[in-house]
User: Fold this.
Amino acid sequence: PRAPSQSKTLFVTVEPDASDDWRLDEIADVIRGGGVGIIPTDTKYAFVADLESRDAVQTLYRLKDAGVGKPMSVLVRGFSDIDAYTQGFPDNVVAGRTQPFKLARQCLPGPYTFILQAGKAMPKICLQDPSTKSKSCKARKTVGVRFSADPVCRALLSRLDRPLLASTVPCEVDGDGIEYAQDPAVMCDDYESEGLLAFVIDCGVRENPPSTVIDLSGGAAKLLRRGAGDASAWVEDDEEETLAD
Assistant:
């Protein structure tokens, strides 16, 4: 992949297996300082921010150009983060299916996003539209959770004190509706001009599919999107996706 042109954004190249993960030390410091950037996951590259930093979260929303209709996800370090920031996996057991928590243990880390009820520790700024200061803006009660298997993503998270708020970097689409591959150098050039992007971690060009999205916030599993993760353990193979674009 080509290097970004005259980049003002910190651009760090890391081996996909994280064998040189010492390079992530500087990135971790930038995140602690409120910087927002792009990192790899086991699906696509994602914008990330310290979820406890109001300024960082607002910057992420501005980069993504997202309002209340575009909820973010939380990139967690492990199941303890899921317990801390959500109300956990539901206890209900659907006839003939394994309990959700046990299924999650089998699937994670992996290319899934689980929609769960938000916990008390989840910062309010992460559950509402930061573009409005209206107190009447109703906060969401659910949050997406990603426990990524990507070695670089996990190595970075291990250096931090808490999870990261995250949202997939949009992919450009050609005339036939086919997504272009995500090139870190191109993404850097595209977003640094706004003066909001603090860093990019380059692990090479990615053509991965998105995560499989399973909504467990209402109890029984509901398929929102078929992606890289096998949905068959959660829903019937003929269940249709319901996630809007």
User: Anything to note?
Assistant: Residues 54-64 form the longest helix (11 residues).
